[in-house]
Specification:
heterodimer, A: mainly alpha, Fumarate Reductase Cytochrome B subunit, two-stranded antiparallel ribbon, about 0% strand, B: alpha+beta, Sulfite Oxidase, Chain A, domain 2, 5-stranded mixed beta sheet, 5-stranded antiparallel beta sheet, 10 strands
């Protein structure tokens, strides 16, 4: 089909990318709000204000029973935060399942995300290119480099699954059916603490991702992820796309 | 029109029709099998319905984790409660001898039980975790009469779908579905860690719902009402919690 150039990103990738972006931002905002009602983290099964925390976040709380050292209590926002958190989690999980299964069968993972060359030389040169903040070549507008592929694989196959797992491990009903989900993690409070750390790992990825989009050319990369079009498709060999 | 795009059009059409009728069938089945929570309206209704339906399908009969004695929290935490007033104070002075649990609604034999009567009923204990929606938790041993025993004793009618329970605190009321009401770990608890349930933890009587967050384990329970129509209570959202913005189902 010569008259319709192959899109840089398939329709499925574009739609699921933005749905997951929306769901992730909603989960982040509501999740951070939920932390405010108890900004203390523990390890093991249980923890409350009568037990020593693993660490505390030095912020005021929305509950006056939490000793924060601040002389005031923030308004309780947990109602909508919880509703929004779980609804967004459903959007994220269902979208991720659609993306995951489709990508497994249509070759997206194999073709676009699995690094072809993982030799130290290749890795080293990619790291050096990144450290020099070198603007990627035109060819890279049509393909991911090795560090990019590894980062995306980490997010898709490690961080998000761990995030969903630790989230489910906090659900008293879910773990009644599958106790191993929380026992393996060392307890319900451990799951909560891991969920919190994983949040920051994903936020770090998001920040680097956005910075890279700016460095690579914000307009062209955004256009590619919104419309599917990328610059100079004719100059790119077909097997690349 | 090329054959490719025609085929695409037809498959897309079939998929859309199948998806739409699938949704209609799913909604009908969900309603028939009680998989729609009372607070399923509003913008967060879809998420709540998915959570409740998924967990009812997955966890209807599962037991909450039980722990060993060594895992019990040395310092459980009693959350803050609003002042309970003079009448509660009088109950406390008289060691709750006049405390009554009224059971009414769709029952063959409406009843009112004293605390002594409830304590004479068959008892069950479990060491379980109570988790607050705020994020903290503790593990304690709870002892009481299984709610299912009380429901059997008053002759719960077969059409019952929810048990509404009220607190001595006038604005607090909750409800659970039949799956949780008949669940073997659901207790009208009157003891904690081997002693009379302290007031701070909901004494003299707390309905302990093990597979949901702490706010479903209502403190100072005075009344159970069995119903087939949850809409006629309060604003029809199932409990006081959704009226203040929290979800009715707290299995999370």
């Amino acid at each position: 089909m010569a008259e319709t150039p192959h899109p840089r990103h398939s329709g499925l990738v574009r739609i699921t990318h933005w749905l997951i972006t929306l769901a992730f931002l909603a989960l982040l905002v509501s999740g951070l709000e939920l932390v405010v009602s108890h900004p203390r983290f523990y390890w093991g099964e249980t923890g409350n204000v009568n037990t020593a925390p693993l660490f505390k976040i030095p912020i005021p709380s929305s509950r006056n029973m939490v000793p924060t050292g601040y002389g005031y209590v923030l308004p309780d926002q947990n109602g909508w935060s919880r509703y929004l958190h779980f609804q967004s989690a459903w959007v994220l999980v269902l979208t991720a399942l659609l993306y995951g299964f489709a990508s497994l069968f249509n070759g997206h993972f194999r073709r676009n995300l699995l690094p072809a060359d993982l030799s130290p030389k290749q890795l080293f040169s990619s790291i050096v290119e990144h450290l020099r903040l070198k603007r990627p070549s035109a060819e890279e507008a049509w393909s991911y480099n090795v560090l990019q592929r590894l980062a995306y694989l980490l997010v898709i196959f490690v961080l998000f699954p761990m995030m969903i797992w630790t989230g489910l491990a906090m659900s008293p009903s879910f773990v009644s059916a599958i106790p191993a989900a929380v026992n393996i993690l060392g307890g319900q409070q451990s799951a909560r603490t891991l969920h919190f750390f994983l949040t920051w790992a994903l936020v770090l990825f998001l920040l680097v991702h956005v910075v890279m989009v700016f460095l690579a050319g914000f307009r062209s990369r955004m256009r590619a992820m919104i419309t599917g079009r990328a610059p100079d498709p004719d100059t790119v060999p077909l097997e690349r796309v | 029109m090329s054959t490719l795009s025609r085929r695409k059009l037809i498959t897309t059409g079939i998929a859309t029709a199948a998806g739409a009728s699938g949704l209609v069938v799913a909604a009908k089945l969900a309603k028939r099998y009680g998989l729609i929570p009372p607070d399923s309206g509003g913008i967060y209704g879809p998420g709540e319905t998915l959570t409740y339906a998924a967990q009812r399908l997955l966890t209807r009969h599962s037991l909450a984790r039980e722990f060993s004695r060594s895992q019990m929290s040395a310092k459980p935490f009693a959350n803050e409660v609003a002042p309970l007033g003079d009448e509660f104070e009088r109950h406390k002075q008289s060691a709750f001898t006049n405390w009554r649990l009224v059971v009414d609604g769709l029952v063959a034999r409406p009843a009112s039980f004293s605390l002594a009567e409830l304590k004479s009923f068959p008892r069950r204990s479990h060491i379980t975790m109570i988790q607050c929606e705020e994020g903290w938790s503790y593990i304690a041993e709870w002892t009481g009469v299984p709610l299912s025993h009380v429901l059997e004793r008053v002759g719960a009618l077969p059409q019952v779908r929810y048990v509404v329970y009220r607190s001595f605190q006038p604005d607090w009321w909750e409800s659970i579905d039949v799956a949780d009401a008949l669940h073997p770990q659901t207790l009208l608890a009157h003891e904690m860690n081997g002693s009379a349930l302290p007031v701070g933890f909901g004494g003299p009587l707390r309905l302990r719902v093990t597979r949901q967050l702490g706010y479903k384990s209502l403190k100072y329970v005075t009344q159970l009402t069995l119903t087939d129509n949850i809409k006629q209570f309060g604003k029809g959202l199932g409990s006081a919690e959704p009226e203040t913005g929290y979800a009715w189902y707290a299995g999370a």
